[in-house]
Write a structure and sequence with these properties.
This protein is of the alpha+beta class and about 200 residues long. The chain is about 20% helix and about 35% strand. It has four helices and 15 strands.
């Protein structure tokens, strides 16, 4: 069985990385998040996605489980549908659901900041300005651009990685954190999701 005393590294402090760190921290795991950019709560961010995020019921449920749903809903704007136009200029309204149903438009950066703050309350350690350069798939050792190495029992990468001889991904794993069993091992190329495990699950 996977020991909760082991350290887990998450590469990427975006929406998914921050949310995942909260779920894992609530289960008692020690989490460190490596983020190549500066802390968006303290400095202006360059580039990235600025458009609002459309948050559906699945997203709301995830926020409810970590206690942030009510806070995020306070600034959310309900979107009941979208308007499409054809080449002749005719407009057609397409509802997102049944009468009275809607999805929520929320600030992407605002949600990200709230998730990081909540994660820190649970003891998650964020290392900003720490760009991961290489990952050793055998020993689960990650190396940042300044040459520093860090060994973890589990590494989860949630960042886009361009094909590079320095950062080659051979496989991905799906695991069940409740039963501690490997669900699926998939061989992949040019992946955007990486899960590397050194301590085997039973």
């Amino acid at each position: 069985m996977y020991s909760k005393e082991k350290n887990i590294a998450i590469i990427g402090a975006g929406l998914v990385g921050s949310l995942l760190s909260i779920y894992l921290a609530k289960r008692g795991y020690k989490i460190t998040v490596f983020e190549r950019r500066a802390d968006m709560r303290k400095s202006a961010m360059d580039g990235g996605r600025s458009i609002n995020l459309a948050l559906s019921n699945r997203g709301i449920r995830a926020l409810e489980e970590i206690g942030l749903a009510d806070v995020i809903k306070q600034t959310a704007v309900p979107m009941h549908g979208r308007v499409m136009h054809d080449r002749l200029g005719k407009l057609t309204f397409q509802p997102y659901g049944k009468q009275g149903q809607f999805i929520n438009s929320v600030s992407r950066s605002g949600l990200n900041k709230a998730l990081m703050t909540e994660a820190e309350k649970l003891g998650v350690n964020f290392l900003f300005d720490h760009r991961v350069e290489k990952v050793n798939l055998v020993n689960t050792v990650l190396t940042t651009v300044d040459g520093r190495q860090s060994t973890r029992s589990l590494i989860v990468s949630l960042v886009r990685m361009a094909p590079s001889p320095r950062f080659v991904v051979h496989f991905s794993l799906q695991i069940d954190l409740i039963s501690h069993r490997i669900i699926l091992i998939t061989a992949i190329k040019n992946c955007t999701f990486l899960l590397v495990m050194r301590v085997p699950f039973n």
